């Protein structure tokens, strides 16, 4: 029998075995990680007093927001080792060891030096002080799986350097992580909810990946804990993509059935949409939804005839590319559900720009089952590379630059509506 290359339809559910062992630990580190206390005293000297002079209204200029009509999701990665990275592993004491690829042995650091350049405009430069002013007395919450946790950590790193010690803290209260900027009374939070809706995988410190059961019509348990949040950033994808079918309930909690993933995903997103419509006040709350984060599990997709994965990749892909791991049917469902929502939810469609970044994953410089890979495991990238999660600093910083620009724009348009006197 001739073995044929698997078609993309079959492929997209092969995530799986590798995935299972990666996700199992999902948030074991929520409690396991020791928060490192070290903080650059140089930076502190430099910025120690900065916060005291910043009680002005936020001055948002046109350079801080995305030009009207510009699609920031179309563009390419350009080399920029003068402004990137925004921070280093050593300068951000809040990073967990899953993402500190340099410290974990990665030799090349080129992946930190690419700037996303939209085709017809520039991304505003991230300004932590402006963001903190906008977030004064507010809560920003990232909801989702471990990919979303990476985005949360990136945001914390982007913001924390302007705050002196004593003015910032990170608490772990599973399923939440809460970063607080004291003087601003602002919090940046993460909420573990891999399916967004309620499921049996919701224990942030001990969830099974293999036996998963999603409660497609139930979001109340999570929703209760989302009250009072001002800005939401939702994400959910990879946990659905384990097999073509997924066990779930809808209606009776005792009637477990196998659903097609797309069917289940749509039902769950509709449950979520209904929660948004009934619980979110669009006048003082804002909701963002992240499109799927791509994976780079099969190098034959970008390098014909090869048999590896993202391991040893050091450069972005140039030219058009879309991996089979980013399921277009799911993408359509996201589009449909967001279009039908009566409240304006902003989609941050980061899939394409991240597709190019086969070089950005943790590969063998991350963890498995809550532990850094051993030397033997590292030398076996075909079995042990993680081509799902991202190194930090890295690709999620760009997602946050885009989110930043949207948050400032939203703030600006709200202030304009209130008139010049406010
Ligand atoms: C706001 O910022 C712009 C550009 O950064 C600057 O030209 C302007 O003077 C600032 N306005 C105020 C009121 O600080
Ligand atoms: C930045 O990149 C350029 C071009 O690759 C290189 O010549 C230069 O040495 C780099 N600078 C730093 C600080 O790494
Ligand atoms: C701090 O922010 C919360 C909202 O996140 C608000 O309810 C509270 O009133 C604020 N505290 C002060 C002292 O302004
Ligand atoms: C995790 O939960 C499972 C059952 O849900 C239990 O058997 C196991 O002992 C738990 N593990 C820990 C570390 O508590
Ligand atoms: C989650 O699992 C841990 C470890 O098994 C357990 O100690 C904790 O009580 C669980 N949390 C909830 C909310 O059930
Ligand atoms: C659904 O659950 C049943 C019973 O635990 C199990 O046999 C089956 O493999 C599960 N289906 C999927 C798609 O995981
Ligand atoms: C990694 O890539 C470099 C050059 O790009 C090559 O020399 C090396 O053999 C590769 N290592 C592995 C293990 O494939
Ligand atoms: C996101 O962008 C991709 C192209 O980059 C497009 O194919 C897809 O339809 C977009 N998704 C949505 C929901 O608009």
Structure explained in plain terms:
It is found in: Membrane. Belongs to the PC-esterase family. TBL subfamily. One of its GO terms (biological process) is xylan biosynthetic process. It is globular, with a radius of gyration of 21 Å. The chain has one domain: Rossmann fold. A hairpin with a 6-residue loop joins strand 9 (about 245-250) and strand 10. It is α/β, with parallel strands linked by helices and about 425 residues long. It contains 13 helices and 16 strands. It binds 2-acetamido-2-deoxy-beta-D-glucopyranose (8 copies). One 2-acetamido-2-deoxy-beta-D-glucopyranose binds near residues 243, 245 and 246. One 2-acetamido-2-deoxy-beta-D-glucopyranose binds near residues 203, 205 and 206.
Short description, anyone?
One of its GO terms (molecular function) is xylan O-acetyltransferase activity. The protein is an alpha/beta fold. The protein contains 13 helices and 16 strands.
Keywords:
globular; transmembrane; alpha/beta; single chain; signal-anchor; 422 residues; Rossmann fold; binds 2-acetamido-2-deoxy-beta-D-glucopyranose
Lay out the secondary structure:
Elements: H1 8-11, H2 16-23, H3 28-32, H4 41-47, E1 75-79, E2 114-118, H5 128-134, E3 139-144, H6 146-160, E4 168-173, E5 176-181, E6 186-192, E7 214-215, H7 220-224, E8 231-234, E9 245-249, E10 256-260, H8 261-279, E11 286-290, H9 328-340, E12 345-348, H10 351-355, E13 361-363, E14 367-368, E15 371-372, H11 375-378, H12 381-384, E16 386-390, H13 395-418
Parallel strand pairs: 3-6, 3-8, 7-9, 8-11, 11-12
Antiparallel strand pairs: 1-2, 4-5, 5-6, 9-10, 13-16, 14-15
Bound molecules: 2-acetamido-2-deoxy-beta-D-glucopyranose (8 copies).
């Amino acid at each position: 029998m001739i073995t044929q290359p698997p078609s993309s339809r079959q492929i997209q559910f092969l995530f799986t075995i590798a995935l299972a062992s990666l996700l199992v630990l999902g948030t074991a580190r929520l409690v396991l990680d020791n928060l490192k206390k070290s903080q650059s005293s140089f930076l502190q000297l430099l910025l120690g007093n900065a916060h005291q002079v910043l009680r002005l209204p936020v001055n948002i200029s046109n350079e801080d927001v995305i030009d009207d009509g510009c699609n920031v999701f179309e563009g390419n990665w350009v080399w920029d080792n003068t402004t990137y990275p925004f921070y280093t592993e050593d300068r951000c004491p809040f990073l967990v060891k899953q993402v500190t690829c340099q410290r974990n042995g990665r030799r090349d650091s080129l992946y930190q030096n690419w700037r996303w350049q939209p085709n017809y405009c520039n991304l505003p430069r991230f300004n932590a002080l402006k963001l903190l002013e906008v977030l004064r007395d507010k809560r920003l919450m990232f909801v989702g799986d471990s990919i979303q946790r990476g985005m949360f950590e990136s945001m914390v790193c982007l913001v924390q350097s302007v705050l002196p010690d004593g003015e910032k803290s990170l608490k772990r209260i599973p399923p939440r992580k809460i970063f607080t900027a004291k003087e601003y009374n602002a919090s940046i939070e993460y909420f573990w909810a891999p399916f967004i809706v309620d499921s049996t995988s919701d224990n942030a410190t001990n969830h099974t990946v293999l036996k998963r059961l999603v409660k497609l019509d139930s979001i109340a348990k999570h929703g209760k804990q989302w009250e009072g949040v001002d800005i939401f950033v939702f994400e959910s994808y990879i946990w659905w993509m384990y097999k073509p079918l997924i066990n779930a309930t809808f209606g009776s909690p005792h009637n477990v059935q196998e659903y097609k993933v797309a069917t289940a995903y749509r039902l769950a997103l509709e449950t979520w949409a209904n929660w948004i419509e009934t619980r979110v006040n669009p006048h003082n709350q804002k909701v963002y939804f992240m499109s799927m984060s791509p994976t780079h599990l099969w190098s034959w997709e970008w390098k014909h005839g090869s048999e590896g994965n993202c391991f040893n990749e050091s450069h972005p892909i140039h030219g058009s590319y879309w991996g089979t791991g980013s399921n277009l049917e799911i993408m359509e469902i996201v589009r449909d559900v967001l279009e039908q929502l009566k409240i304006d939810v902003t989609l941050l469609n980061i899939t394409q720009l991240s597709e190019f970044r086969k070089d950005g994953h943790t590969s063998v410089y991350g963890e498995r089952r809550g532990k850094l890979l051993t030397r033997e495991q590292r030398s076996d990238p075909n079995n042990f590379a993680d081509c799902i999660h991202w190194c930090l600093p890295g690709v999620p910083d760009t997602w946050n630059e885009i989110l930043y620009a949207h948050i400032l724009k939203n703030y600006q348009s709200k202030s304009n509506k209130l008139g010049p006197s406010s």
